[in-house]
Amino acid sequence: MTASKTTSSSDLILLACFAAAVMAGPVILAPFGAGYPDLLQKFAIFGIFAIGFNILFGLTGYLSFGHAAFLGAGSYTAVWTFKLFSMNPIPAIIMATAFGGVFALVIGFISLRRSGIYFSILTLAFAQMSYNLAYSVLTPITNGETGLQLVQTDPRWLDTTVFGRDYGSTLPSSDLFGITMTGYSGFYFCAVMLIICFYISMRIFRSPFGLMLRAVKTNQNRLNYTGVNTRPYTLAAFVISGMYAGLAGGLMAVTDPLAGAERMQWTASGEVVLMTILGGTGTLLGPVIGAGAIKYFENIFSAYNDTTLMNIFSFLPEGLQTGVVNILGLFVGDGWHLTLGALFMLIVIFLPGGLMEGVNRLVNWATARFKNKDDGAPTPEPAAS
Amino acid sequence: MDAILLQILNGLDKGGAYALIALGLTIIFGTLGVVNFAHGALFMLGAFCAVALKSLLQVSFVTESATQKDFLGNPLKIETPYIEHWFGDFGSFLIEYSVPAAILMAIPVMLLIGVTMERGLIRFFYKRPHAEQILVTFGLAIVLGEVVKKFFGANPIPQSAPELARGMVDFGVMLGFDPGAVPYPTWRLVYFLFSLAVIGSVFAFLQFTTFGMVVRAGMADRETVGLLGIDIDRRFTIVFGIAAVVAGLAGVMYTPIQPPDYHWGMDFLVLSFVVVVVGGMGSLGGAVSAGFLLGILQSFASMNEVKSLLPGIDQIIIYLIAVIILLVRPRGLMGRKGVMES
Amino acid sequence: MSVLSVKNVNKRFGGLQALNEVNLEVEEATVHAIIGPNGAGKSTLLNCFVGRLMPDTGNVTFDGHSLLGLPPHEINQIGVSRVFQTPEIFSDLTLLENVMIPAFAQRDGAFQLNPWHSVSDESEVSGEAMEMLRDVGLSDQAQDIASQLSRGDKRRLELAMCLVQKPKLLLLDEPTAGMARADTNNTIDLMKRIAERGVTMVVIEHDMHVVFSLADKISVLAQGTVIAEDLPEKIKGNPKVQEAYLGGAHL
What's the whole-model pTM score? Predict the structure, then answer.
């Protein structure tokens, strides 16, 4: 079919633009004050997390409230891989992805026996169990509240025996054959992963498998009567999204070799839900945009405090200035979560399709306007005159 | 034996709180068909009614003592709450009883909050998918938590029970155990009885008033009741308000047991949802019995004997039970079949 | 030769005997209509064919396979497709996708992990789906979202979704319910064409016009029992049928 040819070439263009935009991220985002590596790393990592979540929620409609568990598990796995095997990030992220997948297989196998809100609560229950256990009984593995850290005496078996590397008395950081995974090199490592993940997600979206997942969301009953066993499809989607989360957790540990249980908390699961719906559930680009937007505003808003606000509004008369600052002060600094919650509500109420839907609406509106202007004759106005 | 009795007693107050929150959740779900993730936040707001009242009552002026000196030799500053100054002993009495007195304040406040919430937000979500209801109320829960944090800070604020209820009740003696074998804080007993009273009133209200009859009919078959030409909308608002009051009262009275903080909303919400699921979505009796059952089981799981046998069980027991119930009997202990499936 | 055979099926809901010793044989390449007053157990019977309900006793076999206890997707995979009373389609997807999904299910089986394939490379399946849409007269709207269709068009789409699987047996639950006359006639024509291809059909229907234009054989169900089974021209004169429809408590 000719139509299909155009879609795949437009996909290639989309992928190329995406890759270019990600790679040029430091330059593009510099004017917005977001061109520094720590934040860029977060964009890429949470982008991966949200893309994966979207494969489950966006395609199948199954709302998981426990995906942070896979993120946390990925971080722990990566740090353990550093400790036991090598400071090279590649084995760490492979292990993190694999463990995220296995963990998701177990939890998904049980949770997917139910659907709707019961599924959400099951995933929530598993995530809370993981979180509580990470703080209590699993302390030997997770190091409890302190968080799992590297220590100088870690064995790093691969590094010492195969690569013959000795870090001496310094505490090593992760490095890819000599390139330290902090700063810009860390970002570019994450960026490459993000592009690969985006490509995989695109392939899934365009595949018969992805079509079946979308069919699950719109009418699971019909799909069953169409001869499709929906359970393995949803489980596969769950595991894939768990692997994405594991990878994201692993990358967090790569850029900063520390893993704490708070990454598993259900508010963290809520955050990825918000990223996905903010950008646009079920769209390819939406989750990445949503993740970027949230992390960007988190960064901006958290940096403000009442003093900086006072400076900004110093042009106002004093009484008004304090008033404005008092109100805005609620939303910045520590109040960032308030903004997050309010944003959550606003998006769900007014724009359930997310930013991507907003963009589409704008485009449609603009094209409709443009068309009207273009062929003005059929519109009623000239007829009246 | 006495250890078992003690654990049962220990579970009752927590169970009462779970039951009260779950009761509201399940009524809202049963009548309005809304999954309210902000219900835990209502419990938390109730608790902060008590905190607010106490701090209001304790607004003081400062005088310098003529006789006493502080350690620097300056006259000792004495804070006298205005209310004691104005009303004397009655003022001190009010401060002493601020927690139970907060009930009077919490009823109108929570009713107002509940009604505002329903009119301003929830009613627009009756027809929207459950996922969107969950998300929007989740957002609201975050907002409410953060607002409270802004005003009251992030740290737990201890509240004290009235002097009378600060001691222990020795249950063991009544049942023939050794004195002191089964000690039970009086306030926890008060809380348990209070929760029973509230549950009883809710049931009586639903059972014996016309309004309650409509609500129960709505829970059994929402669509038909709507077709009967009953003004469901206004009743829904009131139902939501009542559920908010019930959750709020549970919060007010819980403050002496555990110092409230803004995070309560989230903590109790997850647990109460589990309670609702275990009891059966939309089942009143289920919510109450599952609340107490899970409270008691949780207290058993935190016994050292149990913990040494199954390490970590105290941390996960409630979730574990929810998982088992959902897999084995998805409609919960007392739920109707097919509710909320898919 | 009979493809679908129902033997001594009983189903009870609480105090209600919904199906009482139902026996039925559906011959290959025929249209078999099941009629009966409201509450006669027609839909219950149909649900027993597709794995939605489990009969208390008795057996339902299709093509030599027992259908009892099989999940719906397995029943479909052995060649039974079903059209629902209210059209069940994938309303968020395009018409073409709606028909491609069953075509994939037919080709790849109940589960296929192929995230690396591309739907756009599956020209054979999409061609087949397009052909089917043309067959039911919806090919112009192939790229439209299915939720926008009229009820009659939704029904035709659902038929296309079933037919693309080349089912051995097609079950239809009131295929013209709630349709305007013109739509009903279109649907009858469509079903006649399907029948001519040799697809075995079981039709539950209230509309006697539809029944008598299509059916090769009619079974009449009343209060959970088959009270008559005959050729269409003979069923009209059957006194038991007249009794069930007109007589007794209903009037």
Answer: 0.87
